[in-house]
Predict the 3D structure of the following.
Amino acid sequence: MAVAFILSCGGHKHPTVTVSNLNDRRLVASQSVLSPTANPGLVIINGAVDTVARAARISAGASPGLMTLSPNRATLLSFDSSTNSVDIINTGKESNTGSIPLSGPTISMVATSASTGYAAVPSFPFNSGQTPGAVVAMSLSSGSLIQNIPVPGAEILAASPTGNQMLVFPDPTSNGNSSACNYSSSGLTVLSQLLVNTGYPVSMVLCGFDHPAYAVFSSDGNTAYVMNCGPECGSASASASVQVVNMTTPTGVPALVGSPIPVDGATYGLLSGSTLYVVGTPTASVANPTPNNACTGETTAATVCGRVDTLNVSTTPPTVTGSAVITDGYHDRIEMSINGQLFIGSYACTEIGDVNIPIGPDNPEVRGCLSILNTTNGSVVIPPDNGDVTGLQMLTSRYVVYVAEGGNLRVYDTLIDSLLIDQYISTGTVTISGQIIDVKAIDFF
């Protein structure tokens, strides 16, 4: 894969001096623990030297965690799990401009612009007899709710690049929306953001899936690739799959294109040019009691491993062109470095050893939930670390990727797929007291 090294990028600039005295190359890490040595908040990181900036933490509630950015990176949303509220951060001023309360927790938010955001709230209470769940539309400029859109069990959001359409996924293990599909298949909800708060119907259920978990869109938004989680999420089918969806039919109703394409696992994905990377952990089912989940080619005590499959989407139908062994767990994080190293994160994986003990006879292997695929030659590195991967962030001007794993903020050198060690960061870890949950780059650099 040919990857350009971008020396500088456009984007919003900050005409005035920020609180951190950094006008570019800034990242924000969410720290969620209150202790004698740590205060919760959003920590500003100097992305030029991988150190904490000399600035106060941005207030974002008592337990900030999940974060998302608007397309122009002018607005950052941070979810506070202690109050179930969304804090709105002006990244130029590095300040909290407001908080929007939700009726329950969320694990998925999107900001389609600097002024409009959405959160999936699966427990949102509607009238008696109506299945809970909603997509909450928020005005980020006024810090207020726009509309609560009923979507049973709404859990995961995937927005198109234009921001005009959104796919809403219920908990994939629940086979949600199957009743709307006469129980013949799983369904997901298509939401038209252009119709929000207009009085017209905003959403519709699209059927024909198998425990759908996530989707990625083509760059023009005309095509969506839906990940059918399949057996990993409780299906009796033989394998997970990818379903192509045409989002721009003449009738205006999205339509499934062709048959599902079998893959090893499918809970998350990333589209890079004409290559679709799909990840998951192959799982036994009624139709396939012996899935392809052995750790073949790896020297590890783990007995079950995940897979990353590569699909060429320029063909009709898309074709599987390769597969590689990665760590197991439920995969829901992917990031591509500027030199083609694909960082893949999961949670609830098979952890081995103790990262705090030197590798030796008593601690021969250390393994966590992070895998790194070299997209040029197909090789995989499993870094010796422990913990769930809860955040990934590449940089566009450096060969590094930030990884929130096990509550720590690691910096990986993507030229060697190992922790970065230099005069600024001697251990490959940005020293921050507390529990790091997520990390975002708030500048284009």
Remarks:
- The radius of gyration is 21 Å.
